UniProtKB/TrEMBL annotation:
<dbReference type="InterPro" id="IPR020568">
    <property type="entry name" value="Ribosomal_Su5_D2-typ_SF"/>
</dbReference>
<dbReference type="InterPro" id="IPR006204">
    <property type="entry name" value="GHMP_kinase_N_dom"/>
</dbReference>
<protein>
    <recommendedName>
        <fullName>Galactokinase</fullName>
        <ecNumber>2.7.1.6</ecNumber>
    </recommendedName>
</protein>
<keyword id="KW-0547">Nucleotide-binding</keyword>
<dbReference type="InterPro" id="IPR000705">
    <property type="entry name" value="Galactokinase"/>
</dbReference>
<keyword id="KW-0808">Transferase</keyword>
<dbReference type="Pfam" id="PF10509">
    <property type="entry name" value="GalKase_gal_bdg"/>
</dbReference>
<dbReference type="Pfam" id="PF00288">
    <property type="entry name" value="GHMP_kinases_N"/>
</dbReference>
<comment type="similarity">
    <text>Belongs to the GHMP kinase family. GalK subfamily.</text>
</comment>
<keyword id="KW-0418">Kinase</keyword>
<keyword id="KW-0067">ATP-binding</keyword>
<feature type="domain" description="GHMP kinase C-terminal">
    <location>
        <begin position="272"/>
        <end position="353"/>
    </location>
</feature>
<dbReference type="InterPro" id="IPR006203">
    <property type="entry name" value="GHMP_knse_ATP-bd_CS"/>
</dbReference>
<feature type="domain" description="GHMP kinase N-terminal">
    <location>
        <begin position="102"/>
        <end position="175"/>
    </location>
</feature>
<dbReference type="InterPro" id="IPR013750">
    <property type="entry name" value="GHMP_kinase_C_dom"/>
</dbReference>
<dbReference type="InterPro" id="IPR019539">
    <property type="entry name" value="GalKase_N"/>
</dbReference>
<dbReference type="InterPro" id="IPR014721">
    <property type="entry name" value="Ribsml_uS5_D2-typ_fold_subgr"/>
</dbReference>
Length: 368
């Protein structure tokens, strides 16, 4: 685990009562579809956020993270949450949502330690929310199933923190594992685990370009989708099919291209699910490649560093497909490589990336 190694006892003067954890996630395919009511196909990554927690008397919450420089303990009082306190907003958001849903909480001390890189498109934010919610569920006996727990995390982030995220990240952190893809219909929340074919393994590399300041761009994309859905007379872009794309292309620029991405990306998720079931590795790879082109050209959420990483990955003989994963504007790539080749592929890609961009990429999967 990264960063400050101080123990819970050293920080708060007593032992933790509860321990919980939750993983980051990588999305195989289905990007910017979740807030349009569409399909996604994420997996858990081995990196996770761990939480130690102890209820305390009174209504004060004291929170600390090993991942932040400075090592300060931040605090607030339950019922007096105020937005604008940086990372603490994610913690405050969770207690606001739980209280709003009628769950009885007392104060608590909490320590976070994560090896999910922050701001790299691998959802450290959902890992924090889901790990905290799991810890609180256990500490207070909260009646929350794993889906309700994920939705509480999503509302904390979208409603309180103010990041306009869909439901994929928290559902993935709450429900996914690292060996199968979790096919989610974000409208109905129906979900199913589909194993990766044994012939392939995942490669995940972060670009070292943080998407930390991408909130505004993300918001613009969301607004464009809502405007396009309005103009096309549907509730959400999910309600369109590929046959509607020509009509959408008559909308004012860039709305047609935004629609084309979302509608065809939804179709690609369904095709990817079929390819997974058939064990069709080349088919799966081609879908990842097409998804990347669509994110780059139609949805315009890639950056040159990510395009470089994708190109370098695809130039590898053992890579069947590669794409930007996560919201974009930086972040990470996911590639599918022939089983057994992932570590070598990742090392060569990161080396070439450093030479060409001067940036330090980081291999998250396979874990060294
Ligand atoms: P991502 O979810 O892709 O990593 P986000 O911008 O959604 O990126 O979330 C990153 C933010 O979440 C960080 O800037 C920080 O405020 C908060 N965060 C996530 N994990 C931790 C952690 N372990 N400790 C402190 N803050 C965290
Ligand atoms: Mg996030």
């Amino acid at each position: 685990m990264a960063g400050d190694a101080r123990t819970f006892e050293a920080l708060f003067g007593s032992a933790p009562a509860v321990r919980a954890r939750a993983p980051g996630r990588v999305n195989l395919i289905g990007e910017h579809t979740d807030y349009n009511g569409g399909y996604v196909l994420p997996m858990a990554i081995p990196q996770e956020t761990r939480v130690e927690l102890a209820p305390r008397d009174g209504r004060e919450v004291r929170a600390w993270s090993a991942n932040l420089p400075g090592g300060r303990i931040d605090s607030y009082v339950l019922g007096e949450e105020r937005r604008g306190r940086g990372w603490l907003d994610y913690v405050q958001g969770v207690t606001v949502v739980l209280a709003g849903d009628g769950h009885a909480l007392r104060g608590f001390d909490v320590a976070f330690r994560s090896d999910v890189p922050l701001g790299s498109g691998l959802s450290s934010s959902a890992a924090l929310e889901v790990s905290l919610l799991r810890g609180l569920r256990e500490a207070y006996g909260l009646r929350l199933d794993d889906v309700a727990l994920a939705l509480a995390g999503q509302r904390a982030e979208a409603g309180f923190v103010g990041a306009p995220v869909g439901v994929m990240d928290q559902l993935a952190s709450s429900l996914a594992d690292a060996r199968s893809a979790l096919f989610i219909d974000t409208r109905t929340l129906a979900h199913e685990r589909i194993p990766l074919p044994p012939a392939v393994e995942l490669v995940v590399i972060s670009s070292g370009v943080s998407h930390a300041h991408a909130g505004g761009d993300y918001r613009v994309r969301r607004a464009e989708c809502e405007r396009a859905a309005d103009l096309l007379g549907v509730n959400q872009l999910r309600d369109l099919s590929p046959a509607d794309v020509p009509r959408a292309m008559s909308l004012p620029e860039p709305l047609g291209r935004r629609v084309r991405h979302v509608v065809l990306e939804n179709a690609r998720v369904l095709e990817a699910v079929e390819a997974l079931r058939r064990g069709d590795v080349p088919g799966l790879g081609a879908l990842l490649d097409a998804s990347h082109a669509s994110q780059r050209d139609d949805y315009e959420v890639s950056v040159p560093e990510i395009d470089l990483l994708v190109d370098l990955a695809r130039a590898e003989r053992d890579v069947v497909g590669a794409r930007l994963t996560g919201g974009g504007f930086g972040g990470s790539i996911v590639a599918l490589a022939r089983a057994g080749s992932g570590a070598g592929v990742a090392a060569r890609v990161v080396e070439a990336y450093a030479r060409r961009s001067g940036r330090a990429g980081r291999v998250l999967v396979p874990r060294g």
